[in-house]
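Duplicate of earlier report; DUF577 domain-containing protein input re-posted below.
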Amino acid sequence: MNMKSSSDDSSSSPSYPPPPLTSSPLYIARKAKEILASRDVTELTNLVTNLCYEKENDESSKLLYKCFTKHFPNLLATKLLQVYRFTTSPRPKIRSFSLSLLDSLLIDLEESRVGLNTKALGDIKEHLNACLVSQETSEDDFKLLSRIISRVAVDSFIENIPWHELSSYIISLHEEDDHKKTLLIFSELPMVLDEDFLMPLLENDLHVKILKGLLDPSSDEEWCLALEAGFNMALQLISLQRKDLVFDMVYAIVKSVLEMANVRKRKILVRKGLMRIVRKVRREALRFREAEYEVVSRFALMMMRIDGVGKVTEMAAKMIHHVLDRYYMGGGGLDWGFIQTQTGFNFA
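Output:
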């Protein structure tokens, strides 16, 4: 009886059985501080490697990373970029995975309405600038970097922190005739850009490159990127009150969609391009003012009324309208007169 009682007491004790060292909160916290306090990223690179290859029974790596994301997201974001920047080229999978982790981290922060702090913004932008201008990047990595830049740009411009290096980089891509990268990185940028950022792009004819991609694309992917970049440019131009360029961009988009759907019979491609615009509207609608709401709403109606686009493409256009009304905070009736002055179209 005494032995049974002793066994019961032991099993009910919080220290029985003793937890593995790697799952101890104290150990995890101590290890997290040790890794993040180090200027060397070797241990964090090893952690990213373990997560990348999902080694079995390696709960310590998962617990450590969870601790980072919960308690040190700003420092983790900076460190993940360091892993990407300083990991040697024979390990491309690890470098790419560090960007995937960073992208997911920034998405979580965005959905939690938590912004990066000023110190982290400065460090992250410094590393991003270096990654763009001094390193070779694969196509997939560049897509991830473009999404990361977009999310960092939101916090940067909301805090009125300029990003001249990014504007200069986009201009350099334009000068090098790197159409795909130019369209991709601009299409991802958010609707918080200021005039100082946008005007150099216009002065270097970025809108002309977008129009060329819409009307004379070299590939299906370039057309989709130009469609998304053109849509983004139209939104940015509204805030600059450039009615002439808003008209040019909207007209080019409509003309290009008409040609793709009815002349080239590329209805699946048109649907793919419009779905990218759906994604863009979903991300940006919370930042729309009345002007953007009205232009985008009418744009969706115009897409639905194009003859011969097909039911699937028409459904994609309806989704733009649905997402707009769902996410726009002040959605309401439309001012058709305003839309006509912004786009140049007569909607009577």
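Residues 1-21, 331-336, 342-348 have pLDDT under 50 and may be disordered.

Merging into the original ticket.
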